[in-house]
Specification:
This protein is of the alpha/beta class. Helix content is about 25%, strand content about 30%. The longest helix is centred in the N-terminal third of the chain and has 20 residues, at about 100-120.
Length: about 400
């Protein structure tokens, strides 16, 4: 018979819900919350900075952790700075404006290394320092603004979603948006939508690129050269002659990297984006590539059969949810020389790389993070995988 002593005793919370406690912050979790401890209990606090000593009101208590809100700063961390945005802490767009930018880069680097070690079992030293953005503010070239009827105030709120609820934070400008977009916000507010519940995309089109209204293009022109350099340098070092640009969108990577290879193939489910990619190739004078409309999972096997795997690099740039299992399986089975995986979500990236590298089928060569999203929890990564030709294909 199993005794009750066979089970670990539950941890008694050292505080009650709603209680105010003093807390020292020692870490920054992926997602942006400061981390402190009270005994065995971990406490997560938004807008806290490592090095802070703060007063926290407990709002949630779980089995081994709790959450709270910052109510007072007793001692400010050396890396704490004054946020530039009037709406910071109310609007949910930014999480790090209260942290010095150089420190943001260091903490993002640590977070990525920790995630890769915990989720994928990779050596965190493979993660390079985060490449900074030349413009930590005023960099976003695309924003989604919303309208919502504010019944108590009897007015239409125009802006972004709040961080603490499903309501809209009424804003007149955005500190991380390009100046031209803030002008667009002003014009949008002068001619507001007719009712609440509507979304409007404000966008600065990239020069010399055709991008359909609902197609993807990177949101930061200033950090885009660093992202392109990371992919180009990794591609050159592998010596591949052919490139498959999966989830290619309007063809940015394939077209920009065309000079590095003899030929490339781009595949994308978004048909308007493929039509734009073909026009973009013509605009940029690129003639050694082909763009195919269709589902990457379905088309990748046939595309890989057209090329010599030993001379081929596959570049993956999927949505935040990552790659679906069929694509990962066909890559392991076919074994292209190199896989370059571009991702804005390090956790799903580490998860997918673990699958690709299982049984030493692939080796993670390096991860280069690029800060495409300063002042926020998000970060772009380029992972460079190399085939271990002697390893089995089956997981």
């Amino acid at each position: 018979m199993t005794s009750t002593t066979d089970y670990p005793a539950p941890i008694v919370p050292p505080f009650t819900n709603g209680e105010r406690i003093q807390l020292s912050i020692h870490d920054l979790a992926f997602g942006g919350e400061g981390v402190g401890r009270v005994g065995e209990f971990v406490v997560f606090v938004p807008y806290a900075c490592p090095g802070d000593v703060i007063e926290v009101k407990i709002t949630e208590i779980h089995k081994r952790f709790a959450r709270g809100v910052l109510t007072r700063i007793h001692t400010a961390a050396p890396e704490r700075v004054e946020p530039r945005c009037t709406y910071y802490g109310e609007c949910g767009g930014c999480q790090y404006q209260h942290i010095d930018y150089a420190a943001q880069l260091r903490w993002k680097h640590k977070q990525i290394g920790d995630l890769f070690q915990r989720v994928g079992g990779f050596d965190p030293s493979l993660v390079h320092p985060v490449a900074p953005c030349p413009e930590p503010y005023g960099y976003r070239n695309r924003i989604l603004v919303r309208s919502q009827w504010n019944r108590p105030a009897k007015k239409l709120d125009l802006g972004f979603m709040r961080q603490d609820c499903g309501l809209v934070c009424d804003v007149e400008s955005c500190a991380i948006a390009e100046p031209a977009l803030n002008e667009a916000i002003t014009e949008w507010r002068r001619n507001p939508p007719p009712k609440g519940g509507l979304k409007t995309t404000l966008r600065i089109p990239p020069e010399n690129w055709e991008v359909p209204e609902h197609s993807f293009f990177q949101n930061n022109f200033f950090a885009l050269p660093a992202l392109l350099d990371a992919t180009r340098n990794a591609l050159r070092s592998a010596g591949s002659r052919h490139l498959i640009d999966a989830y290619c969108g309007v063809g940015f990577f394939g077209i920009e990297l065309a000079a590095e290879v003899e030929s490339f193939l781009g595949v994308e489910l978004d048909a308007p984006a493929i039509r734009a990619a073909r026009k973009n190739a013509t605009t940029h004078g690129v003639t050694n590539g082909e763009f195919v409309a269709g589902d990457t999972d379905l088309l990748l096997p046939s595309l890989l059969k057209r090329l010599d795997p030993a001379l081929t690099t596959v570049l993956l740039d999927p949505p935040r949810v990552g790659c679906r299992p069929p694509s990962l399986a066909i890559l392991r089975e076919t074994g292209p020389n190199q896989i370059l995986y571009v991702s804005c979500h390090p956790a799903t990236l580490a998860r997918d790389l673990k699958i690709l590298c299982a049984d030493d089928r692939y080796r993670l060569n390096a991860v280069q993070p690029i800060d495409m999203f300063p002042q926020t929890q998000h970060v772009e990564c380029v992972a460079d995988l190399r085939l271990n030709a002697t390893a089995p294909a089956s997981a």
